[in-house]
Specification:
Length: 94
Protein backbone atom coordinates (compact mmCIF):
# COMPACT_ATOMS: atom_id res chain seq x y z
CA UNK A 1 0.00 0.00 0.00
CA UNK A 2 1.40 3.39 -0.92
CA UNK A 3 1.38 6.31 1.51
CA UNK A 4 -1.39 7.96 -0.53
CA UNK A 5 -3.49 4.79 -0.36
CA UNK A 6 -2.83 4.57 3.36
CA UNK A 7 -3.83 8.22 3.79
CA UNK A 8 -7.08 7.57 1.88
CA UNK A 9 -7.74 4.48 3.99
CA UNK A 10 -7.22 6.47 7.19
CA UNK A 11 -9.71 9.10 6.02
CA UNK A 12 -12.24 6.32 5.35
CA UNK A 13 -11.46 4.90 8.77
CA UNK A 14 -12.21 8.28 10.34
CA UNK A 15 -15.56 8.55 8.55
CA UNK A 16 -16.46 4.98 9.51
CA UNK A 17 -15.54 5.71 13.14
CA UNK A 18 -17.86 8.73 13.22
CA UNK A 19 -20.73 6.61 11.85
CA UNK A 20 -19.95 3.88 14.36
CA UNK A 21 -19.91 6.35 17.26
CA UNK A 22 -23.27 7.79 16.18
CA UNK A 23 -24.79 4.32 15.83
CA UNK A 24 -23.40 3.28 19.24
CA UNK A 25 -24.85 6.39 20.87
CA UNK A 26 -28.25 5.63 19.36
CA UNK A 27 -28.00 1.95 20.38
CA UNK A 28 -27.05 2.88 23.96
CA UNK A 29 -29.91 5.39 24.24
CA UNK A 30 -32.46 2.82 23.03
CA UNK A 31 -31.03 0.18 25.36
CA UNK A 32 -31.27 2.63 28.28
CA UNK A 33 -34.93 3.25 27.46
CA UNK A 34 -35.62 -0.50 27.60
CA UNK A 35 -33.73 -0.83 30.89
CA UNK A 36 -35.57 2.16 32.37
CA UNK A 37 -38.89 0.54 31.45
CA UNK A 38 -37.85 -2.65 33.22
CA UNK A 39 -36.84 -0.67 36.32
CA UNK A 40 -40.15 1.22 36.34
CA UNK A 41 -42.10 -2.03 36.01
CA UNK A 42 -39.82 -3.84 38.51
CA UNK A 43 -39.03 -6.59 35.99
CA UNK A 44 -35.95 -8.82 35.88
CA UNK A 45 -36.91 -10.54 32.64
CA UNK A 46 -39.19 -9.64 29.77
CA UNK A 47 -40.03 -11.48 26.58
CA UNK A 48 -41.83 -9.64 23.78
CA UNK A 49 -42.20 -10.76 20.15
CA UNK A 50 -39.12 -12.97 20.35
CA UNK A 51 -37.00 -10.31 22.09
CA UNK A 52 -35.71 -11.29 25.49
CA UNK A 53 -34.56 -8.71 28.01
CA UNK A 54 -32.87 -9.38 31.33
CA UNK A 55 -31.96 -6.92 34.03
CA UNK A 56 -30.77 -9.04 36.93
CA UNK A 57 -28.62 -8.38 39.95
CA UNK A 58 -25.24 -10.07 39.56
CA UNK A 59 -23.00 -10.56 42.59
CA UNK A 60 -19.36 -11.43 42.03
CA UNK A 61 -16.39 -12.01 44.25
CA UNK A 62 -12.80 -11.16 43.40
CA UNK A 63 -9.43 -10.97 45.07
CA UNK A 64 -8.22 -7.54 46.17
CA UNK A 65 -4.77 -7.86 44.61
CA UNK A 66 -3.51 -4.59 46.08
CA UNK A 67 -4.36 -5.72 49.62
CA UNK A 68 -2.96 -9.21 48.95
CA UNK A 69 0.34 -7.77 47.70
CA UNK A 70 0.57 -5.66 50.85
CA UNK A 71 -0.34 -8.48 53.26
CA UNK A 72 1.34 -11.44 51.54
CA UNK A 73 3.64 -10.28 48.74
CA UNK A 74 5.37 -13.69 48.44
CA UNK A 75 2.06 -15.48 47.95
CA UNK A 76 0.92 -12.92 45.40
CA UNK A 77 4.14 -13.28 43.40
CA UNK A 78 3.99 -17.08 43.61
CA UNK A 79 0.57 -17.19 41.96
CA UNK A 80 1.01 -14.32 39.51
CA UNK A 81 1.33 -15.01 35.82
CA UNK A 82 2.68 -12.91 33.01
CA UNK A 83 0.89 -12.51 29.70
CA UNK A 84 2.05 -10.82 26.52
CA UNK A 85 -0.06 -9.16 23.90
CA UNK A 86 0.15 -6.45 21.29
CA UNK A 87 -2.15 -3.48 20.97
CA UNK A 88 -2.82 -1.72 17.66
CA UNK A 89 -4.07 1.83 18.14
CA UNK A 90 -5.24 4.38 15.62
CA UNK A 91 -5.61 7.95 16.83
CA UNK A 92 -7.73 9.96 14.46
CA UNK A 93 -7.49 13.73 14.17
CA UNK A 94 -10.36 15.64 15.73
Amino acid sequence: MTREELKDTLKKLGRARKKLDAAKAQYDALKDMCRDHMIEEKLETLELDGYQLEYKLIITSSVDVKALKKAMPELCERFSRVAESRRFTVTLPV
